[in-house]
Amino acid sequence: MTRMTNPSFQNRQQGVALAIILILLFIATLVGITGMNAGLMQERMTANTNNKAISFMAAEAGGAQFWDWLQQEFADGTLDWTDDDWRTGWTNALPASLPQNPTPNVGASGYFWIDPALSWTDDDVTVTVRGVSLTGNEVLAQTALAVEFERPQSGGMQINPAFFKGMLANENITTNGKATFQGSIHANGNFTNTSGNSELKDRQGIDENGDPVTIENTITAQGEVDFGGSTPHDPNDPSSSPRIQSNAQEIDVPSAAEFIDETKGDGNVIETCETDDLPDDGDGGGVIYFCDGDLTLPKQQGLSNVTFMASGDITHRGRSYLGANNELSVALISGGNITLNGRSDMYGVFWAEGNVRQNGRGSLGGSIVAGGNIRLPGNFTYEQSDSFSNILPLPEAPGPVSALAMTRWQEIH
Fold this sequence. Notes:
The protein has 413 residues and is of the alpha/beta class. The chain has helices at residues 7-76, 84-87, 90-93, 256-263; strands at residues 103-106, 110-114, 119-120, 124-135, 138-150, 157-159, 167-169, 173-176, 179-182, 185-187, 191-193, 199-200, 203-206, 212-215, 219-221, 225-226, 244-245, 269-271, 283-291, 295-296, 304-310, 314-316, 330-334, 338-340, 346-352, 356-358, 364-370, 374-377, 380-384, 396-398, 405-412. The radius of gyration is 40 Å and the shape is elongated.
């Protein structure tokens, strides 16, 4: 028996199969195109992110170069913040950093330029730095940063720092016997202490907030230090700094003679070599005396709130006291030498163009500055004080200058 096949049925089966194949092929094509588009999108997003990062780094590099220029000018002492010519000096120091000729600095495509229209004030400057990612002439991404720098600020005029060094000599300092030092010592020559029983101690002070603080004292010399006594330094503690140092840096010593010449003609200075008119209690009431010659102060006369200047030598044979709030209120300023006699305690500023010599064994406190030598006896105590009464006519010097500061680093949207 023979089975017969319907030709039209077979044709219909083939048509259905073809349609299914075409549908599957279409779906596969869509999936492929979608995958390709997703890949291209991902690649484009990655490229955009990379280009943005390059432009950002380029802008940061421009800001850093301007900062480096400011710091170098400050270090070289050529920074002149308010001078118009100086303000344009960066265009020469940072060549090819203008829009018409940007500087490549991040790979082959990162460039920056600094907007020449800087915003200067007397205290700060705002710099706009633009970073771009370039391919040929096509800008692929760009970033703008606003960077603000603050000029160094002066600390104003302050008492010359030499008077905060404790005991300072332009030549040598010698102590002949046991001594106790509660203050810092520096000689631009040598320091010699002949006793191995001497002591260097720390002292108590007040910080800028008015809180008590321990101040570490030192003995230094540009030449050699010969000090066989004890110090607070702990050799077993690596963080403890040595207190005794030879071959130290020289410290400038101001001239007492020059200061006297500049000050003696002031209207508030009384010229006399007679001191009999001082009150019995020795309180000079803030008066400044000048003697054109040698000056010998009355024996056992206690002094406070007074300044004596002399073009020659000064000899003091009495006491001198601290003023209100334990401030130094007495100053002896000599164009020659200062000699301190007797066993009385003496506190003040002792500043000589020549030598300072103590012959007695009383305590000595305050600030001692000598253009020559300082010579001290044994069995005495020296106590440094950095608290000065405003009645003392001490020379001033510019205070410390603050560093340059970067106060803003912000992306501009």
